[in-house]
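Box 3.1 A note on notation
Throughout this textbook, protein chains are presented in two layers. The first layer is the amino acid sequence; the second is a token string describing backbone geometry. Keep the layers aligned when reading.
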Amino acid sequence: MNAHDIQQNFFDQLHRPWLADEVFDSVPDCVYFVKDRDGKYIAVNQTLVKRCGRTSKDEIIGLRANKLFPAPLGESFTEQDLAILHNGPPIRGQLELHLYPGGNQGWCLTWKEPVTDGNGDIIGVAGISRDLPNRSEAANALDTVSLVLKHIDSHIDQPLAVKDLAKLAGFSPYQLDQRIRTLFGVSIGQFITRRRIEHACHLLERTTDSLSFIALECGYSDQSAFTRQFRQSVGFPPGTYRERKRGKS
């Protein structure tokens, strides 16, 4: 019995779809959600219910984020969802502001992944947002780091020198590296590589762009350099990755 059959055999025994919200109900510093193809909530945890001043999950199911959160947070969350639903890249460890009890805002790391059907078509979005320490000095540092992370993502096809990123943040290269290590557990150089490879994976899965084009889009000087880094990070070359993903769908 292969892995798919083992999973299917288990889920066939459930009396209802398993959405994992019960697991996250007891995690107070983490918001969990699943949304449908229209960006409407179909599963949430109790943390999200409390932070939005609601009394039950039923009050949230069927709403979009822009109907649940105040502007401009709600609009930005809905824009993220719709971008992923329309074949945009997933969000992985994105630093952003979130809503906390009492209406205050604080920093969190957010992950959002597309939910696909048996044909590989996107039918929803699932994600979590994990709280970060919100001391005033930490918040100020995170505000600055957020600018750096946004710069990396919006310039992923260009050279990204650590000294230039540090200058943008008003940090020394060492200070920036330490902050990235604290947040993500990797150096700033490793973080940039991870972002490039994640973007490459999205393009390989969701487009028919050539490998040489993807290499340039992800900031590599040529296809061979891209292939070497991709193989080192993922375990096999980009062409094989694309074939496996398409075969899976």
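Residues 120 and 245 are 9 Å apart (CA to CA). Residues 3-131 form a domain with the Beta-Lactamase fold (CATH 3.30.450.20).
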